[in-house]
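Hi R.,

As promised on Friday, here is the backbone we talked about, encoded as structure tokens. Could you run it through your design pipeline when you get a chance and send me back a sequence?
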């Protein structure tokens, strides 16, 4: 049964309601972080000071998802992870202003202190 009560915006730290644009950013950010594969990607990038190739990210994420060494992960699984990163997850994280994808180098890096990251940190601080 659906909840028919209207939702009320969560007040900001100063007690005011968030603006529509703040809510839009938060919604986009939460949507971007709603998949574990994206969170794994961000976690891996957070431990690197340089861009990471999409192939290396696919290797790391496939091994992490299988909870196995990369040598034990079938290459088809790694290819599927790579394809999902390339076609879905990295573009969504780019749209949320969390990562940059360098197509020439096929490498991904975290954006530095983007507005989205600041929104995320503010959101986490509220929870």
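Update: got your reply. Pasting your designed sequence below so it's all in one thread:
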């Amino acid at each position: 049964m659906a909840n028919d009560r209207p939702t009320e915006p969560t007040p900001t730290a100063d007690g005011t309601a968030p603006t529509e644009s703040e809510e839009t950013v938060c919604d986009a950010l939460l949507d971007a972080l709603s998949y574990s594969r994206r969170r794994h990607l961000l976690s891996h990038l957070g431990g690197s000071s340089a861009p990471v190739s999409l192939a290396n990210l696919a290797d790391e994420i496939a091994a992490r998802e299988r909870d196995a060494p990369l040598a034990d992960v079938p290459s088809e699984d790694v290819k599927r992870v790579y394809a999902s990163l390339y076609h879905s997850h990295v573009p969504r994280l780019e749209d949320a202003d969390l990562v940059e994808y360098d197509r020439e180098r096929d490498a991904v890096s975290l954006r530095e202190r983007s507005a989205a990251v600041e929104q995320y940190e503010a959101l986490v601080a509220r929870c």
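One thing I noticed while checking it: The two ends are 26 Å apart (CA to CA).

Thanks again,
M.
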